[in-house]
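My current task is to audit a protein record that another person submitted. I need someone to confirm that the token line plausibly describes how this chain folds. Take the sequence as given and treat only the tokens as open to question. This is what I was given:
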Amino acid sequence: MVKKDTAVLLEEAKKEAEFFDKEYADMDKEYQLENYLIPQKLIYQVTNPKPNSLIEREYAMSLLGNLEDKKLLDYGSGDGWNTICFAKAKAKVWAIDVSEKGIELTKKKAKANNVSELVIAEVQDCYKTKFPNNMFDVIYGGGILHHLDIAAVGEELSRILHPDGVAVFCEPIRETKIMDVIKKMVLYLLNKKPSEITEDETPLREERIALLKPYFKVVKYRYFEVLSSVNLLISSEKLQMFLLWLDYLLMKLIPGFKKLGRGIVIELRKPVKNSSMEGE
């Protein structure tokens, strides 16, 4: 896959910023009612994640390791809720996003949750960040790669990640459209609206993930959310956990079942450094 032209990437970034500025402005009103506080359950998934968890986000957090005193980049930080969780785990967090409103919200949440001294939040270009080579022990992205040209972003991620560091991403994936059809049917029956998407975002496929391999010696991933993709519509926690467990079991037993998954966790290690990245 050929990298997109710089002018195209800039135009896409501009449209993404406009979309999310509006989105986060609307969400700010809701966060005000909650005093910008992050739920303890979400923080606990970061500070005490279960290894090999059946829950996508918790599994991703377990791959990050002990975050205390680590330099962590929240890459495409959105409205900052993950940023605050990382700071609560005593990481030193840099949060970058294309949305000014998202960065504004992140700063408000950092102050409300008493972690401002551990958070630096600023608008930056994800393709060409301002950070020095090998700066970060950990890079995390929650639903960011599918908004980007992966062929263009891999080199930057490998440049800023420490040789012994890890980068982890939680992303939507679509190897087949079957689950999209089922989701539309369920939403129709429940009279619910689908979540909005931006013009240029596209759920990942394995061939797009493979574009990261020239930049990292270790590229691993695990699928999630087949039967459990309906969990947001289910109130029973026992039923939710049963569907998560059933997904895990069927992915182990039936070849190809994982390709029905709607979510994926990507783990990147051992960044490939070119000569200009060495020695820093």
